[in-house]
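Hi there. Long-time user, first ticket. I'm pasting a complex I've been working with (about 785 residues overall). I'd like to know whether the download I got is complete or cut off, because the file seemed smaller than I expected. Thanks.
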Amino acid sequence: MSADSTAIRVRDVSHQFGEPGDAQFVQALQNTSLDIVRGELMCLIGPSGCGKSTLLNMIGGLLTPTTGAVAVHDKPVRGPLPHDIAFVFQENALFPWCTIIENIKLGMVFQGVPKSEQEPRARKALEAVGLKGFMSHYPAQLSGGMRQRAALARALSLETGTLLMDEPFGALDEQTRMVLGEDLSVLLSRTEKTIVFVTHSLGEAVFLADRVAVFSARPGRIKEIIAIDEPHPRKPAFVTTEKFAKLRNSLYELLHEEIRKTVDQSAAMGAAP
Amino acid sequence: MSGAALKRTLLRHPGLARPAVVAGMFLAWEIAARWWIDPAFLSPPSKVVASLGELFATKGVPAALRITLWELGVAFAISVVIGLVVGLSVGLSRFANRTGMPIILLLYGIPQITILPLFILYFGIGPPSKIAFGVTHGMFPIIVTIVAGVQNIKPILMTAAHSMGASRWQIFRWVIFPHMIPSFFAGMRLGMTGVLLGVLLAELYVSTAGIGYYTQLFTQSFNPTMLLALVSVLAGMAIVLNEIVRRAEIHFGRWRS
Amino acid sequence: MSPKHDRRDKIASRAVQIGFLFGVILLWYLGTAYWGISRILLPNPVNVWTELKDIIASGEFLPDLRVTLTELAVAFTISCTTGVSIGYLISRSQYLIKVFEPLIASLYSVPIILFLPLYVLFFGLGEGSKIAIGTSISFFPIVLNTIAGFGYVDKIFITAARSMGASDVQMFRYVLLPAAFPVILTGLRIGFTVALLSILGSETIASLEGLGHRIVHLAEAMETARMFAYISFVVVIAAFLNTAVSALERRAKRR
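Hi, the file is complete. Here it is re-exported in full:
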């Protein structure tokens, strides 16, 4: 791995909420390092509370690591980098008072895109996610799957080199997720974007990722990285291959023990897992 | 239409049954007032409607109504301005919110009716006291709703705007402000209810001038027809004002559907 | 934000609040004692305190308090019984809800205090008109919340209970009532508060006795210090009643 092919460099980061001794003290992430290559899709997978979303937010500059450092394209991250990084969140983060196209343009207003470019770029992004016919709808008028497509379009329109996706399909039903995953794979094969994708779903990770980083239970660190050697765009038929099943099973083995630990931890604390 | 068909139509359309219920109530009132109740206490609605002309021809009544409407308008405008300024300054800062909100809620909790005599003492029996009393009733609900509207923005929307590089001003202009609009209108609706209550309480309290003088006059001369006509006009005024604010609220809250 | 910073923030805002209250009282004292504000417009806080002690020690407030509380008790009892039973009857049918709920809600948006002159005409200046206005105003939140409580119980609970063979009585006792109870309680609390306010209000506007009447009487006699003392007394009584009712509501909801 040559130095200039590294898009995102995470060095020895830890993150804690609260201070040691406090009742709410949580060590979310411990001494984690990770290099993400330009143009690859890296999936972060792990039990709940292992700090995978925390890591994503630190890469995006929404959280500052307690120790350690993150750099994107050799630029140290000290806050949001709207020209380099775009987010897609799990929850619906579209502004409910704006129509779909207004939402997309607003992102560009924040990023500082000249007015004349906003309309064509918004239309292009909407076309890419197949929502051209819905641009004057309000988010409340769309289904959950369509809303996440719109959120993806907003992130694409920002034309950043890096895309951070925090369980973007997490709130959707299984069928919708599958279709959105296929579409995303097609979309990726056409762009050079570096993508970091947090997910709970083993199938989603294998289907989408070039590499999967498996996290241990809290305090989280990266347990192992698995490469998924399959070109994009991936066909739905990939899911039925033996290769897919093997990769999925090896992920499951890695994760199973960690998930057990997490469930037992929460049971010991008297909380629902 | 036969009775059975009418019944079926009404059962299928509650929207039609509603006016029927209202009509029935007026009919019952008409019958009761005509044949059973002493005319010194209650008059039938037909007589009340017929006396509206006489009411508006009574010297001083149109002026009193006009002044009341003017007081309502001024008190509402002042309440909105104060509510907006205080609500935003308390809502936008964590510290101001923590410090100011308990004081505001404490003042809001005082039964203001007990200090109505003070308003008359300080502002006299004319419009200023009524406007002031309307403002103290109208501004608190507006403040409280605006603060709530500013505060209950989903954190993810702020995070999203932040991640896309929005400046502090842009976040206010494009996130907080549009998010606040529906609560602002909801606050205005509650504020209007408060202003109506405050102004009308003060108007009824002062019996030497304005509406209070005429309600007193009609009550003491056992003239229920004129009293009901006056009260109906005031109620109509309140309904129209409430309806204007309610329509505005619906119009500006469309995206929430 | 770190907990330490948070704590410092909390102390600072408490300090500002206490400073504000002290500032108001200090300005009030200085204004009346040294800056020559007329005693009739604004009495000295020390005088108000003396008057308040006198009112409480002499027990002079008792007859007025009894009148006001009696009116409140009667009005609230009537609006509770009528509000809850009418609300329950309406809530039994979706059709009745559709017909009556919007009707009652739009009636509620009219300032009901406007009926006071009519009530004075019907029932006179005494307790009757106060009870009538208190009942009319508190009836609305109670009936509306009863309809909302019984009328909008989640279908899934009803279906679940039916599937387990619940009888009508069991359905009411174990499903409808517990589901509706918190909503009705909220209605009762709001009803109580508005009944108290409207009774004080109608005593202020037109009456012969009661706490509201006492304040007006003192205002007309220009006994401002004693009026201030009575106002503080009533504010404390109202705050006490409202706090007690809210505490009762919270307790009943916790069960």
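A couple of notes from our side: Chain C touches chain B through 48 residues (CB under 8 Å). Chain C has a mean pLDDT of 87.
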